[in-house]
Structures are given as C-alpha cells and as structure tokens.
Specification:
Layout: H1 6-9, E1 15-18, E2 26-30, H2 31-40, H3 43-47, H4 54-68, E3 72-77, H5 86-108, H6 112-122, H7 127-139, E4 143-146, H8 151-160, E5 166-168, H9 173-177, E6 181-184, E7 191-196, H10 215-225, H11 238-248, H12 251-259, H13 270-283, E8 285-288, E9 293-296, H14 318-325, E10 337-348, E11 353-363
Parallel strand pairs: 2-3, 2-5, 3-4, 5-6
Antiparallel strand pairs: 1-7, 6-7, 8-9, 10-11
Helix pairs in contact: 2-4, 4-7, 5-6, 10-11, 10-13, 11-12
Amino acid sequence: MGITGLLVRLGSIQRKNHIKEWSGKTVGIDAYSWLHKGVIGCAIELAQGKHTRGYVEYAMSRVHMLRYFGVTPYMVFDGDYLPGKSGTEAEREKRREECRAKGLELLKLRKMKEAQEQLQKSIDVTPLMARHLIDECKQIGVECIVAPYEADAQLYYLEKTGRIQGIVSEDSDLLAFGCKNLITKMDKFGDCLTIDRDDFTAIRGSGFSLSGWTDTEFRYMCILSGCDYLPNIPRLGLLGAYKLVNRHKTPERIIQSVRFDATKTVPVDYLDGFRRANLTFLHQWVFCPKAERMVMVTEPDAGVEKRYLDGCGKELGAEIARGIACGDLNPITKKPFVLEPIVESAIRTTNAAWTKPRMKVLEASQKFPTITSFFSQMTHFRF
C-alpha cells in the first residue's frame, strides 16, 4: 500500500525525468506492479476464464521500451506472503470474490462500465501469471528473480549490493527500506519522476525537514504513520508521526507520548508490533544471486530478541530457494511448474515475427480457481 502521504511530502525533491537518463545502467523492476496494471485491461476476460495474454504484453512493452533507451531491466517478482499477513490476504480474497460476483452479474445486464470497475477489483496476480512473464523475459535474455517473500526487500538488497543502480516501482515503502534511487510514475513513453535519497536534506516544506535525520528516524516515521507491516494509530498521519519522531526519537518515548494524548487510542500491543515492523524492514529474508541462497537484508545484532524476528519469514533450503528464485517453483506452494511444449506461430517482437516452439506453463497438482482456470486449457498464444 505504500506510506500514505510520503510522496507528497517529498514533492520538492521529485525530479521530472526520462528513463533514458539511466542508459547504460541496470534498474530493478517491481514486476508485480506492471502485472497489476496489465490485468486491468483484460479483467473481463480473466474473470470469465477466457484466454488472454494482455497482462504479459503490457509488461513486455515496458521491457522493450527500457531496452530501446539502453536501460537493462532486472525483473523482480513477489514470492510468498510474510508470516502474519495471511489474515490480511484472506480478507482481500474475500473482497475480490465479492467484486467478481457483482461484476459478472453486471456483465449479464450489459452494464459494461460498472462491470469493468468491479472485475478490475476482483483480479489477483498469481505466481502462474508471473511465470508466464518470466518465460517471456527469458526468451529475450532479460534477467529475472523471484523473491522468497517480498519484492521490495529483494529490490533494496539488489541495490544495496550494487547489482542494480535504481528501482522502478510505485511503492513508497521502498524508501522506508533505504532505497537510494526510486523511479516512479513511469509511463509507456519513459517519462517518470525520480527521488534521490541524497536529496532528503534539501526538502522544502512547511514544518517538514529531514535535515540531520538518520535512516532509522525516517523508518520510524514511516512505520508510525502506517505501513504494510503495522497499521497506524487512529488519527495519526505522516505529519503527526514526523513531529513525534523529531521530538522524542525512540519508539518507547514516542509511544509513551501518544498514550498521554487524550485524542488518540494506542493498542495495548502496539510497541511490540512497532518493533516487529522495524525489524522486518531491516532483516527480511531475501535471495542472494551471488551466493545462491537466502540471506537476511542485514544481519541482526546478537542482542535482538528472536520473537521480534518472526515477521521476517524463515530461511528455506538452498535447493528450494534457488528453484523459487529462477521461477521453477511456485513460491507459495513450493511445488514445481510443469512445462509442456506447444507450437505457436507468428510471435511478435519489437523487431520481427517468427515461429518457434514455446512452452505452456501449468502447475503440478494444482486445482486452479475459476479466474485463472483458462491457463490449464491453453493450446496456443495469440497476439
């Protein structure tokens, strides 16, 4: 969901740019953000179980655009859900099913606009969809990696270790991780906004300055205002969080101060939740392409209580981790994808059309939900 209001507060240092300024460099791509945008245009087909590759074509058009301008894309995909977020995902799935039922009913009534709006809310991007995009990327030599858990942490780790020099994403949570160069709001022509962490001290705004702030204080502000790992205290937004961190510095003193505010109610277990969220940003498990195994974004200090690390996920065996990272294993079920050779003709690329064998991807021993059942029935790809 990102940090509500953060990009607005950073408006004075956002630069209008073009992706060609990154020519000769490698940028990490939050691939699921492209897939989510891609399914919007084919939501009706997906909800009806019809075959479509619209979401793949959408993402690949961005890939080709980056390469045209000399930028090397490094596609990073989400993996499994972090512990503690399964309840949130179950609630989201319930809402998606409700939207799908409403949308299909509106479709029967030929209320196309209303149906489209509901069905767009009903579609979830699945590992199988991601696998189709990975397959397409590999056909043209574009590097891909599936994170064991969240793409945000994986992207930050790749930037931190120098594998990529910038990150294309719509998620401001990346700044809470410590991302140095965020490329956001990029359109199909390559126009974008960029945020450079080195410019934080130059922020101009009424009552909001990060001059002298540490990365730790910035992360505290993001967590306190509400993030993916911890909801905000009711009636406490980004500016309020900024003022509290600026004055009190530590989580204990910050939360103690809020408890004395009669207008706000702090959950009893909020401090524990804050500590877990902070450590999840710092120590989440990711995949190291060089070592070919899972590592933590940063190693925790010896004194960190293990109970606060349970939100970071768990380490998987090296073989399973490698299988997930390269796209051979479903990151949620840990089961393999089965490849069945089929023939497709006149596959269009940016340069020419050609005919060659392709692979249809099915997941072993998986019963697909209605929305994605069309994958199991495909016989060819159409463009």
